[in-house]
Structures are given as structure tokens and as C-alpha cells.
């Protein structure tokens, strides 16, 4: 998946594909958990680690914000389930009709070539 953390891109309203949405949160979550689990005996090390952990939480929050803005740009995201199902049925019917037309055309072509 594309690692897109450019915040100017979130203002662009061009549609995205699902593969373009950056939802790779696990590495940051892992780093945060690892930071929290560490046991430091030195207070300065604890403070430094706490600051690093806070920075990672902010980074995760920014990643969530970018993902939200990208998800809003996905085509069809503004349709409810009923509208999506209706559109799916329309497309399925169109596909069936086109397949039937292709089959008729193939049959007609094979019929004509058999008489030549």
C-alpha cells in the first residue's frame, strides 16, 4: 500500500482506489506498545521514553486523520447499503444483458460462416 502522509493530498477531492488508502497502522501501534512495556529504572530514561511514546501517539493520530480523509474520497463511500445493493443489481443486470447479446452475436456469426 502506498505510504501517503502528505497532508496537502487530503484536500484533493480526486477519487482514490482502495489500494491507495494508507491503513498501515500496525508498525506504529507495535512501537507504542513496546515503549509502554519497557521498564526503565532511570527517571531521565523514563521521561525520554514517555516523550518518544507521546510523539508516536501523535504520529498515529496523524495517520488516522490521513486515512479518514482518504476513505472519504473512495468512490461510492457516500452511498448507504441499500443504494449500493441497488446499483449492484443494476450492474449485474447490465452484465447479464451484455453477455446475452454477445452470445447472440457469436451464434449469428457462426451461423453465417457455416453457410459460406
Automatic annotation (TrEMBL):
Report quaternary structure and partners: Component of the Mediator complex.
> What is this protein identified as?
Mediator of RNA polymerase II transcription subunit 9
Q: Which family does it belong to?
A: Belongs to the Mediator complex subunit 9 family.
In its UniProt record, a GO molecular function of this protein is:
transcription coregulator activity
Q: Which GO terms describe its biological process?
A: regulation of transcription by RNA polymerase II
Looking up InterPro entries in the UniProt record yields: Med9, MED9_metazoa
**Superkingdom of the source?**
Eukaryota
Keywords annotated in UniProt: Activator, Nucleus, Transcription, Transcription regulation
Location within or outside the cell:
Nucleus
Q: Does the keyword Nucleus apply?
A: yes
| Role of this protein | Component of the Mediator complex, a coactivator involved in the regulated transcription of nearly all RNA polymerase II-dependent genes. Mediator functions as a bridge to convey information from gene-specific regulatory proteins to the basal RNA polymerase II transcription machinery. Mediator is recruited to promoters by direct interactions with regulatory proteins and serves as a scaffold for the assembly of a functional preinitiation complex with RNA polymerase II and the general transcription factors.
| A cellular component annotation (GO) from this entry | mediator complex
Amino acid at each position: 500500500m502506498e505510504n501517503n502522509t502528505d497532508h496537502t493530498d487530503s484536500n484533493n477531492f480526486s477519487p482514490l482506489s482502495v489500494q491507495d488508502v494508507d491503513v498501515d497502522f500496525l508498525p506504529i501501534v507495535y512501537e507504542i506498545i513496546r515503549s509502554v512495556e519497557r521498564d526503565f529504572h532511570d527517571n531521565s530514561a523514563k521521561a525520554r521514553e514517555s516523550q518518544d511514546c507521546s510523539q508516536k501517539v501523535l504520529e498515529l493520530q496523524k495517520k488516522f486523520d490521513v486515512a479518514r480523509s482518504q476513505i472519504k474520497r473512495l468512490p461510492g463511500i457516500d452511498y448507504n447499503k441499500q443504494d449500493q445493493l441497488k446499483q449492484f443489481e443494476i450492474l449485474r443486470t447490465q452484465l447479464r444483458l451484455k453477455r446475452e447479446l454477445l452470445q447472440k452475436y457469436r451464434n449469428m456469426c457462426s451461423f453465417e460462416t457455416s453457410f459460406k
